[in-house]
Specification:
The chain is α/β, with parallel strands linked by helices and 291 residues long. It contains twelve helices and ten strands. Helix 1 links the parallel strand 1 and strand 2. The longest helix is centred in the C-terminal third of the chain and has 22 residues. The structure holds glyceraldehyde-3-phosphate, 1,3-dihydroxyacetonephosphate (13P) and zinc ion. Glyceraldehyde-3-phosphate binds next to helix 2 and strand 3.
């Protein structure tokens, strides 16, 4: 069933488990994510980035996500990820995304606060939630040494000021993780600042979101959850599952020309990768009350 993200946060979440927010780009990834959530009978959040919207089209990808979410046997909430384009975020809210992320973290703090606050006003009037970002979460291309990286991390006092000034519903903070494949295949292990997560949560008291979480060690995942992370974004691990399964499927069946047969093992691989994350995130602690 398609649910508003706020329904996932009715009961006690923080400290117990984290909802996965899986990025999708297409039908098959969305099918794999929902099949995983259904297999474990747990809710899920599905995210779409600006890049994926550029690839598929906003209304096309929304309709794919919403149609599958409506049919799902578990609660599924839909979210727009890392939005820089405010007009597109507004259009997404009007289409029916119950949560959007405005990512103006590259701007100075005053501008980030102003833009985020304006979107919060619009979104709340429409009944949607907003995720903001304070601090700068790096991408693989922004890999810098540890002391430079420190400067990009979210400062707890700044997080409090940002939340108070904007009224965001969830907060993405920079606590050491990096977007993309670098920490899986690039030979670097980001240091996740657990203490900082606890300090931020104790001040802001709204669900915190961990970005760039693919490849983060399971023990670290359990610690981030205990300290206030309630949503964990995963894209790269599903991309790896998708692309490896597609390569194998094509080489296993070199004569096959039916995309449905070629893509069946791909959907299954995405499902298995998502199940692994759902288990790591302690989602078995969730009581699915709307069932
Ligand atoms: O953090 C965001 C996702 O990994 C999206 O990546 O912009 O390449 O779609 P993308
Ligand atoms: P990964 O690239 O580590 O999966 O991070 C995904 C993410 O943060 C999407 O917003
Ligand atoms: Zn992210």
């Amino acid at each position: 069933m398609l649910v508003h993200i706020k329904e996932l946060f009715q009961g006690d979440v923080v400290g117990k488990f984290a909802y996965p927010a899986f990025n999708t780009q297409n039908l098959e990834t969305t099918m794999g994510i929902i099949a995983a959530a259904e297999e474990l009978n747990v809710p899920a959040i599905i995210d779409v980035s600006e890049g994926a919207i550029k690839y598929a089209g906003l209304s096309t990808i929304f309709e794919i996500m919403a149609t599958l979410a409506i049919k799902a046997k578990v609660p599924v909430a839909l979210h727009m990820d890392h939005g820089k384009d405010v007009e597109q975020l507004r259009a997404g809210i009007e289409l029916g995304f119950s949560s959007v992320m405005i990512d103006h973290s590259a701007d100075d703090v005053a501008k980030n606060i102003q833009d985020t606050k304006e979107l919060v006003n619009f979104a709340h009037a429409e009944g949607a939630w907003v995720q903001g970002e304070i601090g700068k979460i790096r991408g693989s291309e922004d890999w810098v040494n540890v002391s430079d990286a420190e400067a990009l991390l979210t400062k707890p006092s700044e997080a409090l000021e940002f939340c108070k000034a904007t009224g965001v519903d969830t907060l993405a903070c920079s606590v050491g993780t990096v977007h993309g494949i670098i920490k899986i295949r690039g030979g670097v292990t980001p240091h996740v600042d657990i203490k900082r997560i606890g300090e931020i949560y104790n001040l802001v008291k709204i669900p915190l979101v961990l970005h760039g979480a693919s490849g983060v060690d399971e023990n670290v995942i359990h610690e981030v959850i205990s300290n206030g992370i309630a949503i964990i974004n995963i894209d790269t691990e599903l991309r790896i599952a998708f692309s490896e399964a597609l390569r194998k499927s094509l080489s296993d069946q070199p004569e096959e020309v039916d995309p449905r047969h070629i893509l069946k093992p791909v959907v299954e691989a995405v499902k298995q990768a998502a199940i692994k994350k759902l288990i790591q995130f302690n989602t078995r602690n969730i009581v699915v009350s709307s069932q």
